[in-house]
Write a structure and sequence with these properties.
With 197 residues, this protein is mostly helical. It has a domain of 66 residues: Serine Threonine Protein Phosphatase 5, Tetratricopeptide repeat (Alpha Horseshoe), CATH 1.25.40.10. It has eleven helices and no strands. The N and C termini lie far apart (84 Å). Belongs to the Tom70 family. GO terms for molecular function: mitochondrion targeting sequence binding; protein transmembrane transporter activity.
Length: 197
Amino acid sequence: MKYLFILLLCSICMLSCQEKDELEKANQFYNSGDYEKAIQAYDQHLEMKPTHEIALYNRGRAYEELGQYEEAVADFRQVIKINPRNIGAYLSYGKHFYREKDYENAAFQFEKAYKLNKSSSQSATLLARANHKAGKVENAMEYYNIAINNDKENAEAYLYRGALKLHLNQAGGCNDIKMAKNIGYEGADELFNEYCK
């Protein structure tokens, strides 16, 4: 009986190690940009653990990198079902809507992420961008301000807040764009030269 228990324990340990190895291998493929191999490895891992939140999310990101958006969205939605507090899944799901120019639904997903972590500059920036694109300029300005208050080095928020201020003929637009330029945000130089010199 004692040996049977030890044999069972060893089998469980081997299975657990195999699952961990598959996930590590999948992550290595993803990090090296080999998204097709990453998806295959995530698939193998998910055969053993079909509700593994991290593997599902990472597979979704790999699908996204390959432009396979339907598969990516299915994984992000599954992650949200498993863990309704997964900020990354809401952000990725929101980016899908943003890419599709469905700014209302993008803002809806970004807002869910923001509400889960109100100190996230990234969530606030994405929420601002979606509102900006949807023409809700007051909401956009509010969330650009929040994003910058949460991270004084958020060049993207400075750039787009500056562009919005210029569009609305408000003071400080060029200062924001200059700040984005000083932080090193790509495209800030051109915008500054075009509108602020």
